[in-house]
Design brief:
single chain, about 425 residues, alpha/beta, Purple Acid Phosphatase, chain A, domain 2, 2 domains, six-stranded mixed β-sheet, about 15% strand
């Protein structure tokens, strides 16, 4: 992180330097709006730019909460994108006026055709306003995402190849949801619709990989009946996320209140019939053959609240199992501890990143600013014989919307063979 501080500092400085040029165009394009010509407008513009640049720097390097970092990164990215879209229009207009000025020097007579008619918009004003409209598209997109993307559940089908998988498990369907964040919901019918989408896939077992609530257990009061319907023949296994411990509430009044809140969250898992794994494992048996389902409490290399997971306990007495599947909320756990120390774990299932709720995700390409914090942030990753899948979440936190990164329901088909894409050229 410290090595990245200087480049990020110069990027923020460069954006602020760009503002000297951009604000001139903004005031010109809005000149008929009297407020835009007042000093308070300029001061407000600079205040927002400086605070956002300072916020992005602090959020990346001060180990703040993910929601705080994601919110500042989203605002910073959108404002920067708006300025960069606006910039070519300003440059084009300045080049046009420079060319016109040079031509006027050699030919003082201004052609009549270039003089605007009475009350007509000038070319400079037209170009600048066109730039303002084009630059507003990212902001408009964010507003559209707020209205339409937040409950636009998408089912992703993934073949998960596990060469040591017992034949009895070949073809089994595993569902995963993550990051419910029930305290953010405001449309119960839409939430229930997503659960129905999951159940229509008829998964044989289901994983939930943490963050049931934002902070308080009572956030589930209006949604426990909906998620109690999440059932599967081989069981529903769950784990805890960083938001499930109550650490993000600064004033509990007393320690007992925080403990009671946590106990209520544990009880919610039990009441819904979910098997919560807290640094432990289960043996899943089908037709006399077994695999291991392991689950740890939250462990993250970036979050300041993230070191409760105990892989030594979760893997205890599993040496005879041919395949081990791990539920661990934070994907940074994979590279920090699983890869270097636990080669017996075949696949890990995570959430946490939300894909920042903003970006681009297609079959063959994905990008989000969150990748600069979490290298493994969405989808399937492989390192040697080990795999990680990061679900971008069922709910939302902070920004009440999603743009390009939609709420996800993942359906895996377990395959007792090697991935053909890795062996076809062997």
């Amino acid at each position: 992180m410290e090595k990245q501080a200087l480049p990020v500092f110069f990027i923020c400085l460069g954006i602020l330097a760009l503002d000297f040029y951009v604000i001139r165009g903004v005031r010109f394009g809005l000149r008929k709006w009297k407020f835009s010509q007042k000093p308070v407008f300029t001061n407000l513009y600079w205040s927002v730019s400086v605070l956002v640049s300072l916020g992005i720097f602090i959020s990346i390097f001060a180990r703040t909460g993910l929601s705080f970092r994601a919110a500042f990164m989203l605002v910073f990215f959108l404002l920067t994108l708006t300025k960069l879209i606006f910039l070519p229009f300003l440059v084009a207009d300045d080049l046009r006026r420079l060319f016109k000025w040079q031509r006027a020097k050699t030919n003082p007579a201004i052609p009549e055709a270039e003089k605007p008619a009475l009350n007509a918009i000038s070319r400079s004003e037209f170009i600048t306003k066109a730039g303002l409209i084009a630059g507003s598209i990212p902001i408009a997109g964010m507003l559209y995402g707020t209205m339409s993307g937040v409950y636009d559940y998408r089912v992703k089908h993934v073949k998960l190849y596990l060469p040591n998988l017992p034949k009895a498990f070949d073809g089994i369907k595993l569902g995963q949801i993550s990051d419910i964040h029930s305290g953010s919901f405001y449309n119960k019918k839409a939430v229930a619709g997503g659960v129905e989408m999951l159940l229509r896939e008829k998964p044989d077992l289901i994983f939930f990989t943490g963050d049931l609530v934002n902070t308080l257990a009572n956030e589930m009061n209006n949604y426990q009946d909906i998620f109690s319907k999440v059932k599967a023949p081989l069981g529903v296994f769950s784990s805890l996320g960083n938001h499930d411990y109550g650490d993000y509430k600064e004033n509990w009044g007393n320690w007992e209140a925080k403990i009671k809140n946590f106990e209520d969250i544990l009880a919610t898992h039990k009441n819904m019939g979910w098997d919560l794994l807290r640094n432990e494992n289960r043996r899943l048996k089908v037709n006399g053959e077994e695999i291991g389902i392991l689950g740890v409490e939250n462990w993250g290399s970036i979050s300041r609240f993230g070191h409760r997971g105990r892989l030594d306990l979760a893997t205890a007495n599993t040496g005879d199992l041919p395949v081990k599947l791990l539920l661990s909320h934070d994907p940074s756990h994979w590279r920090a501890q699983v890869l270097p120390g636990y080669p017996q774990i075949d696949a890990m299932f995570s959430g946490h990143t939300h894909g920042m709720q903003f970006g681009i995700r297609t079959e063959n390409f994905q990008w989000s600013p969150i990748k600069y914090i979490y290298p493994e942030w969405a989808g399937l990753y492989r390192e040697g014989k080990q795999q990680l899948y990061v679900n971008v979440g069922y709910g939302f936190l902070g920004y009440p919307g999603r743009l390009g990164i939609y709420p996800e329901i993942t359906i895996f088909e377990l395959k007792a063979s090697a991935d053909p894409s890795l062996t076809k050229n062997a």
